[in-house]
Protein 1
Amino acid sequence: MKTARRPGYDGSGPGDITPDGCAVDFYLRLPVDNEPDVIAAAAPPPASLLELGCGVGRVTRALAARGYAVTAVDESPAMLAHVTGARTVHSPIETLELDETFDVVLLASFLVHAGDPAVRQGLLRTCRRHVAAGGVVLIQREGAGWHDAVPRERQLLDGVARVTASTDVGDGVRSMQFEYVFPDARWTQTYLTRPLSPAQFTGALTEAGLVVERYLTPDGAWVTARAA
């Protein structure tokens, strides 16, 4: 089903497409990667965990199975309908106001690279507002070289995932275009991203009342932060 898109975002293919261009049916077939391992190494279970932008629950289920008490948040009802093993909350991340805090707050899927700086700061302030004293915020950012060597592709299950373009659209923002091709289906997605140098990333966290603690992976894609 085609719904209204955010400016600069689009998607195509079978099934529901969310306002930011994500195809629900594509994410339903996408396997979990190493996210649970990275998260567990940085903030071991059991712990209360707020997952911001949970999608269909691909990572949610794996985290719940490891012993986290997960509260999963997403703005898409079509995505949330598939989440199991967690309490779900239907809300945009940047306006989320839960009257509780969590041991771990997770902001994955490169959401910190929102093209609009006001949205990015809203996301980070939500992280700060909901992390418990002594708790940790885990953020996934674009790793080194993310916008290099485009186009590129990789095998994904019985199909292929392609980054077809990373185009400068001005004001430090890039338009990313993807194609996912399987024997039985094809999806595309276009979204806007604002690349952040380590210094820019640190500055954005500082503005939101957070401080970078450490980088967890050699490519700089996973970072832990704490309340300043």
Protein 2
Amino acid sequence: MSCNVGPSLALSLLIAALSWACGAPSQPKDPQQVLSAYSSALASGNAQEAYALLSSEAQRTLSFGTFQHMLAENPREVANLARGLAGPAGPPHVTATVSTPHGETLELVLEDGVWKVEGSALDLYSQANPRAAVVSFVRAYENNRYDLLLKFVPDSKLAGLTAKKLQESFEGKQREALDRLSQALKNEAPKAKIELLGDHATLRYGGGGTIELLEEHGVWKIEEFYP
């Protein structure tokens, strides 16, 4: 059994290392120092040192043995990653995500030592990514914004559909089921697993429910619900 290092995993581990270093006095103190230390550890084959730079969350999901095996199985990819991290980097862009008890998320950005609300927080019905689209869909449904819910319908299903028809459908016999779905998504969408493949995405929630999403014209729309 072999382990392949994909860009997304490498990036995840790098981000985890950056976040961990912020609270560890014995470790590199800033993102650039972390990049340098992580790059050096990978380049020299020091799996233990590289692993120590990973966040506790990353270490919980990836054992040292698996990490060590992954490095040994993919020497060329690891060498390329190490070289890339050793190159010049721009100023660090530090962000944080805050979740509310109601499942809402808010992005913060660190500017000149002060945390500020990121501009996307102004977009209450964002469709910038699959997770944002699902959260926005729930918000539009709860606020009875059927005019906005139309924006989440793929072009292939828009023919003849109006806000009025959507309202009649949503407030008819399936209202109770939709209310349950809305509540489930409100609770779980912020942390649900998302699988992304090109312009398609699948969000998994609850005990096996899924939502299929499609990117059209630069925004994400909802193709189908599977309870």
